[in-house]
């Protein structure tokens, strides 16, 4: 790319990870204690490597969250609280998408519609504006864009190539052609290539096939993706078609990508209040990259260890840290969905 403005890859240096604390006012309420325990493990993992910026709804939530974290011996020097309003805690989709131009930053504030109007999202849609108004960010401007786009729907290699899924963008913008969407994404995100996947979706995923549950870039022209080797599984055909699509993609130099297929976990089922069972989206592709490590969702499955081995191969030199996400996928997301990385230099002192 020749543009000075860049959409950084997630593996570039970060200043912090942004999360929002779960409360009884969010969809976590029915299983809040279990979910809080997972959040504590997540914050513990993040703060081993870098700061965590934790959004809370008010002073009482902050005091409670701080007490829980302190009692679990979290390094509180690396935990910083900020007060803001939020409907729920999926910050990958409601948080800022950050571009950088040298030491200056642009916070892209796209519309957040609750994944196409599925859920109430008015507070989440105002979140970037509210955070920016508190002067949290150094040398940054906010660019409000009247277009629905979630951070989990896009993946960049940091060098001008974007990876996304047609299913999600088609449903958000049914009147737009692929060519129109390619042009819009390229312009706003300063990308000169957009690669589209037409196949792949997980049961229990209500994001309409976000790319971060399916396929992710890794350094040196690599793609890590969720595979399925069980021909009897309902996902087999779709994920096999997706794997074939990924194998056909080419780098900027016209070469095949280096591919790292992730193993397939056994089905995890949840029973709702009516006694009906539904399958949860246990994807290993929803990992979170931090400084010096990759935080990997684990599910208490025999495939966890193999997934960690694959990620270690795709991200050499980084520690692979497993975080049990069985309580999180109950609400249809995992580690990457909960978090948003903030590039190095973005946070004000």
TrEMBL record:
It comes from Solilutibacter silvestris. The keyword Kinase does not apply. It comes from the Bacteria. One of its GO terms (molecular function) is agmatine deiminase activity. InterPro entries: Peptidyl-Arg-deiminase_porph. One of its GO terms (biological process) is putrescine biosynthetic process. Keywords: Hydrolase. PANTHER family: AGMATINE DEIMINASE-RELATED (PTHR31377). Transmembrane segments: none annotated. This is Peptidylarginine deiminase.
